[in-house]
Amino acid sequence: MENKPKSFPPQHFEQPAREGEMTPEPEIIRDSYKGADKLKDKVALITGGDSGIGRAVAVHFAREGADVAIVYLEEDKDAQKTKELVEKEGRKCLVIAGDVGDEAFAQKAVQQTVDQFGKLDVLVNNAGEQHVQKDIRDISAEQLQRTFSTNIFGMFYFVKAALDHLKEGSTIVNTTSVTAYHGNKVLVDYSATKGAILAFTRSLAKMLAEKKIRVNGVAPGPIWTPLIPGTFPEEKVKSFGSNTPLKRAGQPSEVAPAYVYLASEDSAYTVGEIVHVNGGEMVAT
Asked: Which of 190, 259, 261, 269 is catalytic?
């Protein structure tokens, strides 16, 4: 852990930022992470799976024995890199480009996954976007609609499409955020969607528990992903994560095992819960 960077070179990229442009590139999986067939022969669909946390989840799932489909917007190079990393683990990877905020696309992506692999066992709703605005009056209707469409409406669409294929023992994992608990004064619309995801996760968990489909979530804190230099100015990026008790940002490799836990039988008695991976930022749950 001592080798994790405590600061980053100043950098900023236009969204959507690409992982290969980042310095340093995020750590996706530790060499010491040993798979134990926790997801052997499962099929997982991961939105926002081309980079960052989504890429790390895809690779960890593959190391645990799952085939994966990843959904992404337009970052073709990043998506192909994720595919290569999954295939390096000896598993198959389907890449699907499109807008998660489009319900017709969500239905198509789920069907493509089932057509390719024959089933669907795990849905990870991870796609998200954020845009800094210091004054709520600067949040346009277009931005507000876009943020909600990507971050929360897309989750509804993918769950609705997936439920025709999920069965007893299947799992859904949603990505919320520490901002759902703390808020963020320059990410008001983003934080609002993450609060919505929290309530969505708990409510959906109650709805699907009788079907023996478990729903849980992960609330990452400051994690070094392309969203960070794609959102914040250079000086903010330089000190990103330094205000946590651990005085550093986390890496995708440090978040993805939480998704493995929630997707696998290790969490068989865990329903409607949120796993907090945030470097010590205590929150009221």
From this structure: 190
For residue 1, the model assigns a pLDDT of 43
- Helix-strand-coil percent breakdown of the chain, rounded to 5? 40, 15, 45
Q: Which residues pair with 46 in a beta bridge?
A: 70, 124
Could you give all domains of the chain from N- to C-terminal order, each with its CATH number?
19-232+252-272 (3.40.50.720)
Residues ≥6 apart with Cβ < 8 Å to 145: none
pLDDT at 216: 98
The pLDDT value given to residue 227: 81
- Nearest-angstrom CA–CA distance, 177 and 198: 9
Mean pLDDT of 158-185: 97
CB within 8 A of 29, min separation 6: which ones?
A: 56, 59, 60, 63, 253, 256
Is pTM beyond 0.70? Reply is: yes
Do the beta carbons of residue 28 and residue 252 sit within 8 Å? yes
Any catalytic annotation for residue 190? Answer: yes
Interatomic CA distance for residues 9 and 238, integer angstroms: 6
